[in-house]
Input
Amino acid sequence: MFDSYRENTLRYNPERCFGCLRCTEVCPHGVFAEGDRRVEVVGPEECMECGACAKNCPVQAIEVQSGVGCAWAMIGAALRGRDMDSGTCGCEGDEGSCCGSGR
Amino acid sequence: MASPPQPCCPSCTSTGEPDQEIRATESTITVANRLDHLLARSGVNRMGHRVEPGLYGLGDPTPDSPVFVSANYTLSFDALRSALSGHDGYILVLDTHGINVWCAAGKGTFGTGEIVRRIACTGLDSVVRHRRLIVPQLGAPGVSAHEVLRRSGFTVDYGPVRAKDLPEYLALGRATPDMRRIRFPVADRLTLAPMELVHAALPTIAGAIVLYLLAGLPVALGAVAAVLAGTVLFPVLLPFIPTRDFSTKGLILGTVVALPFSAAFFGSHAVPGWAALAPLLLMPPVTAYLALNFTGSTPFTSRTGVKREIFRYVPFMAAMAISGIALAILLGAARLLGAV
Output
């Protein structure tokens, strides 16, 4: 009750992990911790879906639908008839970069 | 607000030439820098607080000096260079269109492609002997370390979350677990309040004037109080208000702020007792809506959670506000007809 943040899109496949620990380095919320040979997910509900772990995992052991947790941007997108999940952030004048951005 | 048109997929400079100039910079933050920070924090010329992208020499760097990567936003660049007081090094400023590291990483403009491009543009590989970049940890959502290595030959070392931990990071040669964790202390939350206020200022002032003319001073003050609660009190009290959802936190705070207004109406002989319900119906949804909109300013709300909050609470807020407006109209009509 009154906790909308308990579930998220973070999925971890320990079978693939070879323990490089990059995810423990990039996660600012301590979601991952060093385990026995493989990384362990210790705080899944702390995940804010920034996507840093998945992007820096060289073996794609982590999946997350990353996006910006910003109501202002999402409501703004919905009001303008755009996709709420488009991930565009409303904090700038222009519509962001026209480049492929390499994400 | 409109920025000059950017060439699609930026080349090294606006003229398309390679940019091998190493600009000199220092750690000192001047009065002019502080003024620029103040304006940036207040939302003045929001997209205009930019540093020229490229390579900067801090102090007296040698080919073995470390390379720090930053965004071309003055607050990001200045936080980095001031934290490195007494250190020599290079700063590789990416073109993030004047956006900070964290937000630009979320968009991908602070990202693998721009790092690789900027290394090539500046000829970094002939400036330094080593092949190591220190990238802020909060840039990681846009950067794929193994991709940068594959495409440029440079190894990415993620530095601490906060630039001010860099001296300790450099001394230790690694980040401590504490340096890796993001915090959102009261000072950081308060720094954001002016921006929240600026966003809400115009509609609030206009609304307060209209309410003052229609319904008098207490009602106008109630509107201002609800907005101040959502934009200033809420960020300050964020961790102390019960529940995890921002909307419920906002509803609780808004109700607390509405109580004195409700009590004042209840005690007044000018209006009937049931008028005391109006502040309780109208103020909490305003505060809660502003509170919900603060999610994007915090470093811990997930998109899944925020979306769930929107669908869960915005209809409830709207229903509350509509009931309050209906009650106010009823009250107004009753007064006009001389019934109360």
